[in-house]
Amino acid sequence: MEVSCRLRLFSVWLTFVFVAGCTGGASVPRPTSPGPQESATQLVPALTGATLLLPSGASVVIPPQALSSDQTLSFVRNPADTPNPQTKYWAAATGSETLTFQSPLPPTPKGTNPPSLTFTLPYASTQAAAILAARAPVLEITQSNGATVRVSGNATFDTTRGTATVSIPRAALDGATSVKFYLALDDGTLATPSPGPRYWNLAASPPAWQSTPIALDPTQRTVVMVHGIFSSVETAFPCESSIIAAGNYGQAVGLDYDWTQPPAYGASRLAAFINSLNVPAVDIWAHSYGTVVTLAALPSITKTIGHVVLLGGPLPLNGAPQADAGFWLDLVLAGAFIASPVQVYEAYSSGMIASLATNSPVMQQINSAVRALALPPFVQVAGASPLPQETSNLAIEVLYTLYYGGTTNDGVVEQQSALTQFSPATSAVTFVNLDHIQLECDPGLIDYVGPLVNH
Length: 455
Known about the structure:
Elements lengths: L1 E3 L33 E7 L5 E4 L5 E4 L8 E8 L11 E11 L16 E6 L5 H7 L1 E8 L4 E5 L3 E3 L4 E6 L7 E11 L9 E6 L6 E3 L11 E5 L6 H4 L3 H8 L3 E6 L6 H14 L4 E7 L1 H9 L6 E8 L29 H9 L2 H4 L5 H11 L6 E6 L10 H11 L10 H4 L8 E5 L11 H11 L2
Parallel strand pairs: 15-16, 15-17, 17-18, 18-19, 19-20
Antiparallel strand pairs: 1-10, 2-5, 3-4, 4-7, 5-6, 6-12, 7-11, 8-9, 8-12, 10-11, 13-14, 13-16
Helix pairs in contact: 3-11, 4-5
């Protein structure tokens, strides 16, 4: 049977997602061991394209007009190869295939959309369980200047034949001299914090987040921190002391939740946690996906909310347009992924990613519920500086252009999403020199927001 793979979030924060294709053809034995290396060299006419097919079932399909001129291509399957992803939390299954171009592919003409190239890679049954848990195809694109860009895409897995099929847009191959395709696995090193409440211990040396409850003073102003994807309270807000000082807070708490689940999951837990606090009122500071979780939680929060600070959120009126067609960026580019492949797949399979699409049913429900409330003052912040990885490589820049369509963004969230208006008392701010990650703890941003909530 065929099982459709996930969207690659990339990570952050970070993955480029590619439309998956399917290949037909005669049934081939499912590999149980590496087997011998295979190769094929073929002249591929640009007008008609061609398919390079190896005995094991490995193949690459070059459609008509994908190449700008006739080229002799080399296609090699190395079943014993175990690539080094050089990526945190990622490992590689045994086996890879490499397509090498006779000369670097020229840029695709503006206004054109050449067809994608489609790769099919057999995988050994001995690694099937780990491969299918991760569902993380990896494509390494080497360019004429020697730089290699690592991206990940959707794949279709044929579990009967033991093959993974993935397609890559031709525009992503501008300047490429070769493409290597392999399958990723979790490397087993990711240690995620146990979900639950977190308390900022000012008495510790130095002050730090802890899971052990701290008695709260009901006379002190309290701030609640809500993290986004690929993070926890501990990792998202190491600047808590600065936020406390700027906002004149006396104490801080947070909640670690499973970000791979749809908004309702974290929202119900966040509301229950805030309602349980022995304080009359709280402010909420949320970042990224945490802004959506916060908005979804507001109708269930019975405490008084003084202010809501939303930092770089894919807010409901615009959502995350990248998810509209079932796509998501991993947000962690050029090999610097910060979530494991299994985590990213869980976010897709749970419906979390689909829930963020513009005008998704989930986003519409959140928007309707929030607008029915008497809302506290909001402070909404949008970044306008792309992540450094966006412009570090031509292939990445091309893919970002495809997904964002030229709109201003912080590398993860479009400005128009983050500045969606919710409250008449909203103060919407744009810091043009901040990217998505900087929005969490930038000193200038904290100094600006502090006085807005300190009254």
